[in-house]
């Protein structure tokens, strides 16, 4: 019986260690943190939104397109993440790269989102942010610096992703 307890204790330790290792791969640190490129874009409602509007807050910026299956697949989890992060004064926005407003609006009718969706029809901002492969997500700290990035889709409501993001806004 003692051997069985030892086995399960070791197994649990291995699982927790593996979980921590995979969590580290979910967000890649930007080292050293660099100034996030400024932008001003229109959202789907015609409002102008800029990076400066989020100064002093943690901001998650997701670049995506409707033609991108992994982008479409991660939108529901981004929506859940946005709701959770909002409780901690962390904002989340999505920037559509290279598409017309009518295509984006059609997608949003099928998949409503509770966070701002900005339009970058000529991909100027996407290029400045080096968002040449989609989806790609950046985390901006309260000082306006890129501190994390995630290339490829994620399950954005996973605690391994949300807790480090939330931690950026905590007093130090």
From TrEMBL:
Keywords: Redox-active center, Signal. Transmembrane segments: none annotated. Residues 30-170 form the Thioredoxin domain. It comes from the Bacteria. One of its GO terms (molecular function) is disulfide oxidoreductase activity. Coiled coil: none annotated. It holds the Pfam family AhpC-TSA. Residues 1-23 form the signal peptide. This is TlpA family protein disulfide reductase. It comes from Sedimenticola selenatireducens.
């Amino acid at each position: 019986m003692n051997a069985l307890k030892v086995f399960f204790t070791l197994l649990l330790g291995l699982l927790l260690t593996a979980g921590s290792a995979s969590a580290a791969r979910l967000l890649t640190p930007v080292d050293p943190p660099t100034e996030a490129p400024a932008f001003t874009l229109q959202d789907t409602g015609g409002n102008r939104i800029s990076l400066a509007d989020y100064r002093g807050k943690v901001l998650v910026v997701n670049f995506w397109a409707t033609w991108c299956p992994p982008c479409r697949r991660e939108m529901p989890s981004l929506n859940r993440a946005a709701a959770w992060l909002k409780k901690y004064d962390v904002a989340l926005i999505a920037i559509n790269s290279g598409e017309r407003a009518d295509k984006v609006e059609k997608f949003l009718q099928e998949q409503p989102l509770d966070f701002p969706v900005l339009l970058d029809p000529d991909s100027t901002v996407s290029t400045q942010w080096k968002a040449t492969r989609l989806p790609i997500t950046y985390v901006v700290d309260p000082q306006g610096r890129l501190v994390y990035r995630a290339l490829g889709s994620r399950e954005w409501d996973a605690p391994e992703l949300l807790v480090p993001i939330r931690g950026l806004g905590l007093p130090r």
